[in-house]
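agent> fetching stored inputs for the inosinic acid docking request
agent> found them:
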Amino acid sequence: MFPEIARTLVTKEQIAGRVREMGQAVADDLRADLARDGHSELDEGRVVLVPIMTGAMIFAADLIREMPVKLSIGLVTVSSYPGQSVSSKGAKLASALPDDLAGKHVLVIDDILDSGQTLELVTRVIAEQGPASLRSIVLLNKTARRSVEFEADYVGFEIPDEFVVGYGLDYDGYYRNHPEIAVLDPASLGVGG
Ligand code: IMP
Ligand code: MG
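agent> prediction call returned; pasting tokens
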């Protein structure tokens, strides 16, 4: 049986309010960085956002519209090693990262920080290019599941150790278009690991 949504964890209104706050906070920090560098916030090419596909698609789309800063976007796709839908088995880059991040102010965007493997990998590889600053933002944080040391600079919501879908997050590719963060019925999920 395909798992069904059991209940809502974060509503549309809560998401919209928090995304607005975070967009302003990140934009303020980036503008402060640019001022410190002696650059105008309108100078081109200084701020690059790196959303991790596919989960961060919807969060990134909403976040950038709350960020009044001149920015460009360089997508990266990260896939998990084959494993069950509800458990992370490690991350690998499935597309090339933008290769022109040296000296840039970079913000990596993901939907959720779970084991930490995805963001640890992406930020480690970007750091090798020598960006001027490197920050990360996640909508959701499941601190309980961390297997590698990693903390995001900006977190939308702390959530318990439950498998969630919606607002970009999927179960086997589905439910990304569900407009809220929802918990699947545990009885219909396979035994996770
Ligand atoms: P990490 O590498 O374990 O931190 O996991 C990050 C990735 O796993 C995220 O980008 C999501 O794509 C996926 N993920 C982790 N937890 C969940 C969840 O509860 N629902 C849906 N996807 C998840
Ligand atoms: Mg993901």
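agent> quick read of the result: The domain at 13-162 is CATH 3.40.50.2020 (Rossmann fold).
agent> awaiting further instructions
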